[in-house]
Amino acid sequence: MHELEGRYIFVRPNADQLAELGRFAAEGSLRVHVRETFPFERAVDALARVEEGHGPGKVVVLVDE
């Protein structure tokens, strides 16, 4: 059996903390479970999903560059 470990990181708009998250992502130690994705045009649906308590994982809105 594998032990699962997690930790919460709460971030306010802070350059040092955001840089630390960037380092975590670059080294591969920041893993986020994405439950569902929505195109930008359906952002209202994404918000509704969050408000209904969608379960574990993040709801992501995709924005084209």
Q: How many distinct beta strands?
A: 2
Helix content bin: 25-40%
Question: Largest sheet at a glance?
Answer: 2 strands, parallel
Oligomer: single chain
Strand order of the largest sheet: 1-2
Shape: extended
Low-confidence stretches: none
How many structural domains in the coordinates?
A: 1
Distance between the termini: 42 Å
Give the percentage of residues in beta strands: 15-25%
Q: Secondary-structure element sequence?
A: HEHE
Gyration radius, to the nearest Å? 14 Å
Question: Overview of this structure, please?
Answer:
The protein has 65 residues and is α+β, with helices and mostly antiparallel strands. The chain has one domain (15-62). It has 2 helices and 2 strands, in the order αβαβ. It has helices at 15-27, 43-51, and strands at 34-39, 58-62. Strand 1 (34-39), helix 2 and strand 2 (58-62) form a beta-alpha-beta unit. 0% of the residues are buried.
